[in-house]
Every structure is written in C-alpha cells, then in structure tokens.
Write a sequence for this structure.
C-alpha cells in the first residue's frame, strides 16, 4: 500500500520491502526511505512537483492519476526535465496503456484492469509488443 508517513517507511522496511511508493510528493517520507536504504517512488501531478523531486535527487516518479494527466503531459514534461523517468498509474488499462508508453512513460501500472478477464489477453499482447 501507499507509504504516507515515516513510521510506515520503517514498518515497510522491517517487513522486507525493497522500495516504497506514495501517492504524492512528501520529501520527509523520501528522506525516511533513503535513510532505510529503500528507493522511493513518490507521486507527482505537476511539473513543479516533478522539479522539486528532481532537486531532491528523485529521478523515478509515479505520475498519478495518469488518466487525468493524459499522454501529452509526459511529452510536455520531458522537454524541460528529460532526466526524469515516469511510472504512469491511475486509470490505465489495455485500451490506453500503449499511448502512455508511446509518450515516453517507462512503466505503466494497471490495477483494476487485472481483475477484468477481458483485459488480461489485451494486456499480455501489449506486454509482448513493447518487450
């Protein structure tokens, strides 16, 4: 689940987590993860948040909610911030994940689509097409 406060970082590390994920950008949580030797994937939804994360040394970011941002957002942000790598999450499925990958997203994360049997074959085809 999402890590929102430093105590959750400690609990995640103690449970054997290898990284932490958050829905938003909280630099104190990022620092807590770094102190425990865990890579942290914070959520961002604006270029300002992305730039703040980069200044803090975070180059892999979770763009959330990706469906609201749209593929064009990633192309626009890549212009001034090409060193960032994005994981797109929130509202993605087999019908739209390819557009995000074509826009430069490095990873697309699907959630509810995995519980839809009609999505599984389409997601598998997308995986093979982008491998």
């Amino acid at each position: 689940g999402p890590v929102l406060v430093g105590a959750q970082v400690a609990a995640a590390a103690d449970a054997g987590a290898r990284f932490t994920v958050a829905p938003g950008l909280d630099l104190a949580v990022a620092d807590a993860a770094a102190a425990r030797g865990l890579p942290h994937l914070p959520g961002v939804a604006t270029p300002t948040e992305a730039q703040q994360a980069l200044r803090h040394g975070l180059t892999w970011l979770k763009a959330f909610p990706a469906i609201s941002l749209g593929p064009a957002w990633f192309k626009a942000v890549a212009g001034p911030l090409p060193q960032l790598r994005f994981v797109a999450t929130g509202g993605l499925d087999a019908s739209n994940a390819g557009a995000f990958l074509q826009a430069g997203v490095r990873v697309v994360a699907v959630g509810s689509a995995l519980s839809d049997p009609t999505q599984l074959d389409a997601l598998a085809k997308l995986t093979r097409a982008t491998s």
User: Anything to note?
Assistant: The chain has seven helices and six strands. The chain has two domains: 1-40, 42-130. The first strand starts at residue 20 and ends at 21. The helical segments are 6-14, 27-35, 47-55, 66-69, 71-78, 97-102, 117-130.
